[in-house]
Amino acid sequence: MVTFEIDGQQVQVEEGEPIIKGAEKLGIKIPTLCHCEWLEPYGACRVCTVEVVMGKRHRMVTACNYPAREGLRVLTQSERAVAARRMVLEMQLARCSTVPIIQELAREHGIEKSRFGEGTETCIMCGLCVRICSELVGAHALCFGQRGTERFISTPFQREGEEGPCIACGACVDVCPTGHIWMEDLSARKGQPQDFYLGPKSAIAIPTQQAVPKAPRIDPDACIYLQTRGCSICQQVCEPEAVDLSQHDEEFEIEVGQILTTTGFQLFDPRKMSQYGYGRLDNVLTSLEFEMMLNSTGPTGGKVLMKNGQVPRAIGILHCIGSRDENHHAYCSRVCCMYAMKFAHLVKDRSDAEVYQFYIDMEAYGKGYHEFYSRILAEDVNVIRGKAAEVTEQMWGDEAEGVLHIRCEDTLVGKFRDIPVDMVVLCCAIEPQSDLGNMAHILGLTRSPDGFLLERHPKLDPIGTNTDGIYIAGTCQGPKDIPDTVAQAQAAAARILALIAKGKVLIDPIKASIDAEHCSGCRMCNSLCPYQAITFDEEEEVSVVNDTLCKGCGTCVAACPSGAIRGAGFTDNQILAELEGILI
Amino acid sequence: MAVKRLHLMVCAGTGCVSNKSMEVKAALETEIEKHGLAAEVDVIPTGCNGFCGVGPILLVQPDGIFYQQLRPRDIPHLVEEHLLKGRPVQRHLYTPPGEKGTIPLMSDIPFFHAQVLIALRNRGMIDPEKIEDYIAREGYQAAAKALTTMSPQEVLDVVKASGLRGRGGGGFPTGIKWESTKRAPSENGTRWVICNADEGDPGAFMDRSIIEGDPHSVLEGMIIGAYAIGATRGFIYVRQEYPLALKRFMIALNQARESGLLGEDILGTGFSFDIEVHRGAGAFVCGESTALMASLEGNVGEPRAKYIHTVERGLWNMPSCLNNVETWANVPPIILHGAEWFTQLGTGDVSENPWGGSKGTKVFSLAGKINNTGLVEVPMGITLREIVFDIGGGIANGKRLKSVQTGGPSGGCLPEELLDLEVDFDTLTAAGSMMGSGGMLVMDEDDCMVDFARFYIDFLMAESCGKCTPCREGLRNMNMILQRICDGKGQEGDIELLEEISACMIDAALCALGTSAPNPVLSTIKYFREEYEEHIREGKCRAGVCKALITYKVDADKCSGCTLCARACPVNAITGETKKLHVIDPNVCDRCGACYDACTFDAIIRV
Ligand SMILES: Cc1cc2nc3c(=O)[nH]c(=O)nc-3n(C[C@H](O)[C@H](O)[C@H](O)COP(=O)(O)O)c2cc1C
Ligand code: SF4
Ligand code: SF4
Ligand code: FES
């Protein structure tokens, strides 16, 4: 600790800390323009110039980086210090006469107008942007160009956009005191969270309002630290030290007796059907994005809003995007018709917008569903039978009714129609997760031709699989709505609990067993077993049968080239004895 | 090696080389061959002699005969006369300006006579590309003495006692800098020594000349310094625009390594040290210590605050001792001959306090309106008058001296009244100028002091790094004000405004470039204020330099109608027929002064 004096008041700071720290403690305001507590002091703007006295020696120094020394006397209001600051500000004002922060500081120092003219520069050369980008972010995407009066803010080798090193984190924009740097539309850039992204979101955020646990999560694609090893500011500000950026993904092995697979679905990517303009046209949303928007805890607080913040005049809801389509998925996704009707109902409830539904068939089969359909018809929702052909931007005529056009054939009246709307919602197909194949392989499950997991029997055992102890529930098995999913999941839970409650499993006596003496370790049987009951013991170098899984089908018995596998109750002697019994 | 009768020292400094001294050398070699003299006569290329204005220079040793302005076609006659018949050729000897008689001996020529050579001790005497030549003239004896017979502390004590102060501009006592570097804590014991060979002052070539003429003297200085400080690695920061200096350094480094004077276990003493050369991209500001180190690290060459000194945390945050080329070159003679020898020359008393005086010599580059331009090494304490009139041979063309500018772009202009000022670090600073790295520019009555200040402010504006507001914006605004004064649009209060900006720069700029940048303005205001006032109040430039303030007219009584002026005018502003009065159209006239120079009847007048 060193003790020193600012304008007659004593203050203590840590050894090596600058004068300004002491001034902050005392509440003495020293103006700064290039100072930022997260960055190394730079000492460029010089508006923090103060006079210091050490013994008999007077000196002019900058408060933001001059290390306080024991016994130092600092004069922030001495004639020399004020004169130097005033002149610096007057010259800054001459350079950037329109920049508010400079105007304000100059005015505080009694300068209304600079004697050196009125320049229209907006960069004050504080270097905050350059420094935050290299020191904190670590991207080194900004630099100064030229020198002297020609100096300007630039990018290395003037490379910008995609080819430059900018990771679009926005730190420079945030730190720039004048607005000289701004963000371009970043939607196509790297490092920006894309999925279900409807509004501002930071790299560390609580993912949803009802998230469990209700803790922030780091998005690895947007986190600066995970990209450049810079920043780590969240770790620095978190007082309970809950953020640990050094953590890695870890793999655990847990031994279990039964597995319930509930890996869900993913939404069909409507970019594959470019005729609907998703990703290209503003205000074309997927059903999931629209669902988020309608949620009262969502980004718009449940209001239906266009990108420009206005309420749409008409909305088109397009069914069967990627479903019932030979080119993508032949199946019906089952839930779209009903949620589309719910959308229509909510839109009608919350705004005056017209709603158009474009459908192939209205699949309202469940309990109370058809009644709901009748209700929305009564709410004046327009339903048009016919799959939408394309969505285009309004190119001609006025935009009185909408900025997007939906073209389709109305098959009930046999006419082509062209409907102007402001917003389009695409009811995208439910499809298997892209890595479901991998998962099926790990668990030894089979898949049906549509890509979903195959149940043991469609009617008699819709939750079991060919492997005992592994069950499936929900949309990993096929498209279904929430009530169906819950029912299936509860059934699976009951099955699992029944087994646990029993404590013991009764298994068929018919089993295969491998004679370790004769097994050559060729592993041929491992992949042949339809129930994944045979594993290889790496240590003993022989194959082993899991008694609980083995159904005694005998495939392996027949296949083993060494004749090492025997079916229990089916040894040669036993079969011969049986034959004997029959024949005699 | 056979002893030769004569050594022909051909100057191979950059000035003489561009005046074809290498062709002179080739011609000499051919002629010598032709006359079968190769066994008795040796031709040796040397570093710059400093008297570049009269190059190419040939010095015949051991007689000390000085030939100047030689052309290759002069050589056959010269070889025949001097080498064969022993008669110096009169018409190639030096004649002082305005005199008739020649001066055959180099040592008698006034330009050389008053000089004392320490840093330039081997000037014109050795082939800079041969380490043997350097060793033959006491080279590396100092290093050997220091490493084998003295402790590092003893070396340090000698340098401290010598009162040597930095020749790069600041004049900081070298011994104290070495001591602070030695004492600064370093975690792993790493310390660096660095040689500042950036030499950014326009028109200055002291450092280049030392490196090109005697690179080993710098290396030897650095070896001794490293030993005293305990550094294991050295860096030379040399500007890329000095290709010859760079080449000489590389050759010298290799020779020193081969001779066991650099590298592991130097001279078997167990002390290891090596030097690396770094090429700078050539920015004036990179001569500043912190900017130089930033540049050396591979960062942008921008200064940083020196509240923590570079001797504590410099290059890569390690204790670093940066000295100028000339400073390093001064070290070996000091070690060899002792501190007392060095303190005999110079001003003040440094026995108690190294700031008490300026000892030894200083190299200056003399330029401007002076008869003998070139490089001179003079003892500290010599007066400006001696430099300008005795060594420099007075003002050219019989004009009157107006001012002497010292210290490079951020130095100041001293008036004629101060000619008897004894030149040392402190007197120059007290007079509002500075020693700087040794530029000296002489101005006569044809130089406008306002225009001159504007010129230097222009230079600094382009060379400032632009990091801090006072320097960047201060120079911009000073330039704007000076420009309007030169354009005849100056306003009352402009002088005070210049002073106000200067005060802010001195108090608030980040590095010494900014804090010293107002010097040209302040010193000209201090000593030549009336010139500023004339520009502003009367729209008059007494030197006739500021174009907006002058007009050219034809004196009707004197014009003979010779048409010379009309032919000289590049913009065809002059009309008139042969033998008739000529007239200048002021609307077309570009005020270049070509007619003024062309007229042989003094008929063009400048008002
Ligand atoms: C703008 C500026 C330019 C400088 N340029 C040089 C230079 O070209 N060469 C040099 O030796 N010193 C230069 N200096 C001085 C150096 O900062 C430093 O003081 C010097 O190299 C230290 O060596 P010395 O103590 O031997 O003089 C410059 C200083 C400033 C402020
Ligand atoms: S762009 Fe903004 S942050 Fe960057 S130097 Fe200029 S004013 Fe400062
Ligand atoms: S004083 Fe000039 S050269 Fe030095 S840091 Fe400031 S702008 Fe750069
Ligand atoms: S805040 Fe200290 S120099 Fe800018």
Strand order within the widest beta sheet of chain A: 2-1-5-3-4
- The figure for the number of domains of chain B is 5
Using the alpha-carbon principal axes, give the shape of chain A: flat
Please, what is the average pLDDT of chain B?
Answer: 93
Low-pLDDT windows of residues of chain B: none
Give the second-level CATH assignment, the architecture of the largest domain in chain A. Answer: 3-Layer(bba) Sandwich
For the report, how would you describe the main beta sheet of chain A?
Answer: 5 strands, mixed
Q: Largest interface, counted with CB-CB under 8 A? A: A-B, 37 and 33 residues
- CATH-assigned fold name of the largest domain in chain B: Rossmann fold
What is the total number of structural domains of chain A?
Answer: 4
Proportion in helices of chain B: 25-40%
For CATH, the homologous superfamily of the largest domain in chain A is named as FAD/NAD(P)-binding domain
Helix/strand-derived category of chain A reads alpha/beta
Kindly report how far apart the N and C termini of chain B lie: 68 Å
Decide which structural class fits the backbone of chain B. alpha/beta
The proportion of strand residues of chain B reads 5-15%
Provide the gyration radius of chain B in Å: 26 Å
Number of strands of chain B: 17
Question: β content of chain A, as a range?
Answer: 15-25%
Radius of gyration of chain A: 36 Å
What is this structure's SSE topology?
The complex is a heterodimer of chains A (584) and B (607).
Chain A: E1 2-6, E2 9-13, H1 19-26, E3 49-54, E4 57-62, E5 73-75, H2 79-95, H3 100-108, H4 128-137, E6 143-145, E7 152-154, H5 171-175, E8 204-205, E9 217-218, H6 224-228, H7 233-237, E10 259-261, E11 265-267, E12 284-286, H8 287-294, E13 314-321, H9 336-350, E14 354-359, H10 369-378, E15 382-385, E16 388-393, E17 404-410, E18 415-421, E19 423-428, E20 430-432, H11 436-443, E21 470-472, H12 482-502, E22 512-514, H13 524-528, E23 534-537, E24 542-545, H14 555-559, E25 565-567, H15 572-583
Parallel strand pairs in A: 1-5, 10-21, 12-19, 13-14, 13-19, 14-15
Antiparallel strand pairs in A: 1-2, 3-4, 3-5, 6-7, 8-9, 11-20, 16-17, 17-18, 22-25, 23-24
Helix pairs in contact in A: 2-3, 9-10
Chain B: E1 6-11, H1 14-18, H2 21-34, E2 41-46, E3 58-61, E4 65-67, H3 75-84, H4 110-113, H5 131-136, H6 141-149, H7 152-162, H8 174-183, E5 192-197, H9 206-213, H10 215-229, E6 233-239, H11 243-258, E7 274-280, H12 289-296, E8 320-324, H13 325-337, H14 339-343, E9 361-368, E10 374-379, H15 384-391, E11 401-406, E12 412-415, H16 425-430, E13 439-444, H17 449-463, H18 469-486, H19 494-508, H20 512-516, H21 519-538, E14 552-554, H22 564-568, E15 574-575, E16 583-584, H23 594-598, E17 604-606
Parallel strand pairs in B: 1-2, 5-6, 5-8, 6-7, 9-13
Antiparallel strand pairs in B: 1-3, 3-4, 9-10, 11-12, 11-13, 14-17, 15-16
Bound molecules: flavin mononucleotide, iron/sulfur cluster (SF4) (2 copies) and FE2/S2 (inorganic) cluster.
Flavin mononucleotide is lined by residues 166-170, 172, 196, 198-200, 284-285, 287-289, 322-324, 327, 437, 511-513 of chain B.
